[in-house]
């Protein structure tokens, strides 16, 4: 039986004149990897900070692991892992000292040496935090996020600044944690990352959930048609947008009587969906209000 890890209804938050969240609803099941996508200023960080209990909301119901983050106590906090957008580790300590030190804050921490291995920092155990590269520091941030053996891990743009190899290694780490049953909520600007990792995702735009579902559902619901490309020996490159690409290819086969020159079928990507939704809904809720 699955239980709900996060339930949000009608969440609203203003910063002075700026409406950051304008009625967000979210349902995240235990054990799920849930991605939050959206353009700059859409309200992703504000949402995550409210789920973490680090930001007050104006109105709305928020339930995270059975409690309201606004009033939950230490026990609840020890069940949540947070990977901050800004580095949180003290610069003068070594990697080993830092992870061991943070483990003491939790009632039932994971083994610090195992966690160092999990994030791939074994070779750096004796390096001072200040001597780590950006990507290595981020791994340390993840280590500190999981050292308390959290049921729910909240990550705000975890791979910003990673090189492509580090990003793939980080994805492996997230998959490992997910396989262990950790519920994971992450915000990201990388559509490929959302597609790779997320069981379900929400696109937030202008302080509202513009769309929600599995990556495949979103592609089906909001994606454009498939495009069949081929090269006509007389006229050159041709393309046709169609909901029935197989039929188009069958017609081309009859026409060319054999191999179709330059045949390529492009399916809608999550990027198409994202661009369509964020174009449709704009950036912040305040932008929307100004535009009205
Ligand atoms: N502390 C703050 N004070 C005033 N306005 C804020 C504050 N934090 C966020 N905002 C505003 O609220 C809106 C939502 O910001 P938020 O950081 O939640 O967006 P985001 O989706 O995480 O953006 P990004 O992708 O750029 O990180 C923005 O218009 C932002 O300028």
Automatic annotation (TrEMBL):
Coiled coil segments of this chain: none
Entry membrane topology: Peripheral membrane protein
Location in or out of the cell: Cell membrane
GO molecular function annotation: ATP binding
Keywords: Antibiotic resistance, ATP-binding, Nucleotide-binding, Transport
Keyword check for ATP-binding: yes
Species whose genome carries this gene: Streptomyces coffeae
Sequence ranges assigned to domain ABC transporter in this UniProt record: 6-231
InterPro entries per the UniProt record, alphabetical: AAA+_ATPase, ABC_transporter-like_ATP-bd, ABC_transporter-like_CS, ABC_transporter_ATP-binding, P-loop_NTPase
Name under which the protein is recorded: ABC transporter ATP-binding protein
């Amino acid at each position: 039986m699955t239980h709900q890890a996060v339930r949000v209804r009608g969440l609203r938050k203003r910063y002075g004149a700026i409406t950051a969240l304008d009625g967000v609803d979210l349902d995240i099941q235990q054990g799920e990897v849930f991605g939050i996508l959206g353009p700059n200023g859409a309200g992703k960080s504000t949402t995550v900070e409210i789920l973490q209990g680090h930001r007050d909301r104006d109105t709305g119901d928020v339930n995270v692991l059975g409690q309201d983050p606004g009033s939950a106590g230490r026990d609840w906090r020890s069940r949540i892992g947070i990977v901050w957008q800004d580095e949180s580790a003290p610069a003068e300590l070594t990697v080993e000292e830092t992870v061991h030190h943070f483990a003491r804050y939790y009632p039932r921490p994971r083994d610090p040496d195992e966690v160092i291995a999990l994030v791939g920092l074994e070779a750096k155990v004796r390096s001072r935090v200040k001597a780590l590269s950006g990507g290595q520091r981020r791994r340390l941030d993840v280590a500190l996020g999981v050292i308390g053996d959290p049921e729910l891990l909240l990550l705000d743009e975890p791979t910003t600044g990673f090189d492509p190899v580090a990003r793939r290694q980080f994805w492996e780490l997230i998959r490992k944690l997910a396989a262990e049953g950790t519920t994971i909520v992450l915000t990201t600007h990388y559509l490929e990352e959302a597609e790779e990792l997320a069981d379900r995702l929400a696109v937030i735009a202008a302080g509202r959930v513009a769309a929600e579902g599995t990556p495949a559902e979103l592609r089906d619901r909001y994606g454009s048609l498939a495009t069949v490309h081929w090269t006509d020996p007389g006229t050159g490159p041709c393309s046709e947008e169609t909901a029935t690409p197989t039929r188009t290819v069958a017609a081309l086969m009859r026409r060319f009587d054999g191999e179709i020159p330059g045949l390529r079928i492009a399916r809608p990507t999550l990027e198409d969906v994202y661009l369509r939704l964020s174009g449709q809904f704009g950036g912040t809720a305040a932008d929307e209000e100004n535009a009205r």
